[in-house]
Design a protein that fits this description.
about 250 residues, alpha+beta, Enolase-like, domain 1, three-stranded antiparallel sheet, 8 helices
Length: about 250
């Protein structure tokens, strides 16, 4: 009896099941903020200098949550316990609501609205949002008469988003020496041997050149001994020793 599946045209048969890994939202939540979204305030002031502390606005926390998990998948609850505002930040993960909480107390600088924002930001840190700011090195910077930071410190590359990090500058490729340059360098070193052999660095340079005067590997050796040779050139020049063009 003919199998029913064999009667199905090939273009209508289901293909292989491919599992696509969904990126974890936690990595997205933990990503550094753009540098212009990071603000600074002095945590301690001494003699017109303040200890710079980095922070982000509560609105940036909300925007990060909206962008990563969606505005419908997070919520907050606030409760005032004495002078401390507790924020419970819940995120919906896999159909379940997961809650993490933290709190902030009243300060001379912050009113009731301020401790609500601070409590939200502290709860967000429990989810990894802005947590990297706590790893920044403490730096003393100048402050003005109003105790405002005059010039904030620069963020290190690891505390910037990928788009702002410095890209390595490609180094120009050095061309290997020609056979004529190799021969000239070897002959000059041989001629200078009587005067310079007393220095162990020249002895090592001569030894390498004697055994490796080929285009395939001399370029690497010349680079390795360049530092030894350069700081002795002045001695050679003082003794009026001529060296060929391109030898160094």
């Amino acid at each position: 009896m003919k199998n029913v599946a064999d009667a199905v045209p090939a273009h209508l048969k289901p293909g292989p099941i491919v599992q696509v890994e969904t990126p974890s939202p936690f990595e997205k939540l933990k990503e550094p903020f753009p540098s212009d979204r990071v603000h600074w305030r002095p945590g301690m002031v001494r003699n017109n200098r303040g200890l710079a502390l980095a922070y982000i606005d509560a609105r940036d926390v909300m925007n990060r949550l909206d962008a990563v998990v969606g505005p419908e998948n997070w919520s907050t609850e606030f409760q005032l316990l004495g002078d401390t505002m507790i924020c419970a930040l819940s995120i919906k993960l896999g159909g379940l609501w997961v809650k993490k909480s933290d709190g902030a107390g009243k300060t001379d600088m912050e009113g009731e609205k301020g401790i609500v924002s601070d409590a939200l930001k502290r709860a967000a840190v429990q989810w990894g949002i802005g947590r990297y700011l706590y790893d920044l090195e403490a730096v003393w910077v100048p402050v003005d008469q109003y105790k405002k930071i005059v010039k904030p410190p620069a963020l290190p590359d690891w505390a910037k988003p990928e788009s702002e990090r410095r890209q390595p500058v490609p180094q120009p490729q050095r061309q290997p020496p020609t056979q004529d340059q190799i021969d000239s360098a070897v002959e000059w070193l041989k001629d200078s041997e009587d005067m310079l052999m007393f220095d162990h660095r020249w002895a090592r340079a001569l030894g390498r050149l004697y055994g490796t005067a080929t285009p395939d590997n001399l370029h690497e050796d010349l680079s390795a001994i360049r530092a030894d040779m350069e700081d002795l050139l002045k001695d050679a020049e003082d003794n009026q020793t001529d060296y060929p063009d391109g030898a160094m």
